[in-house]
Description:
The protein is an alpha/beta fold. Helix content is 32%, strand content 25%.
Amino acid sequence: MSLGVTIAGTGSYLPEKILTNDDLSKFVDTSDEWIVTRTGIKERRIAAEGESTSHLGSKAAEKALEQSGITADELELIIVATITPDTLTPATACYVQQQLGAHKAVAFDISAACSGFLYAMKLAKRLIESGAFSNALIIGAEKLSAFVNWKDRTTCVLFGDGAGAAVLRASKEGEGRILATDIGTDGKQAHLLNIPGGGSACPITIDNADEGLATLAMLGKEVFKHAVIRMKNSANTVIERAGLQTEDISLVIPHQANLRIIDAIARRLDVPNDRVFVNLHKYGNTSAAAIAIALDEAHREGKIKRGDNIVMVAFGAGLTWAAAAIEW
Ligand code: ACO
């Protein structure tokens, strides 16, 4: 009988450069007070010049591989979740494969914005359960600083760069496993949050190059409303599928977009704040990387122990949402 799929290792990587709210207020009309009150974000990381999404992802992956005991050479599958790929083609996962020296691995990207890491988790779990692959490296990596309009105060204060990774393999006797997953999409709301230019619908040309079309555009208030409802429902779905009660959950790791959204979800799930992991004050919203980074930090800080039940829940452009319940 299959024992399911376990997380054998986690890793994360944050670029060194810190951009504080005060730094931002020097070139855009904002303030530390506004950003902290409205979002909870105090600072974010910015990738160095020449450091692309694949570099961030590979560094996080190296740490996850080291912890997992699986070598790059043994890897069979690499999935990178990102909305800020190194290039439109090939996939960022191909660069990661090369950087890690994981020559045997099949590598591809998925684009599901902030939900991407949990989309990748569901996909990898199913592929391992089916017997198609015996292990998988899943990565959430973003260099959002390259796709933010630094003149638009309504978006540029929210985002940051970083990467997180996890190595998945079949669970052995006595090990934890992924108990339940949920993913969903509502394409009718695609207009709420997008990067309108740079794709086939709106190529960047000499005529529109100054319009900032290849940067993130968002109707923040609308996104906020959908985020709370979708994340609450998705979290409840995996809690129920896993046969858990709220009191069985030792840690909720929500997408790190806005402290007000996180508080609203914790209230609706009836989970006390000390069982909700928050690191967005340090990194802002790192989209697909956010849950992956938070999982690794919580794990390495000893906030997740063998036998604990944890729930991760995300929401992002698409609109997309996703959740996973895990017995560690
Ligand atoms: N500094 C100062 N003032 C600002 C700033 C800023 N950085 N940004 C906006 N303001 C002003 C606005 O212009 C507005 O001024 P006005 O009242 O004179 O018109 C006022 O502040 C209020 O703006 P709102 O947009 O109403 O502020 P709100 O409380 O809704 O907060 C925010 C905005 C933080 C974006 C919030 O709506 C939010 O977090 N939304 C969800 C975003 C999200 O979760 N995204 C997740 C997905 S990301 C992904 O998938 C890549």
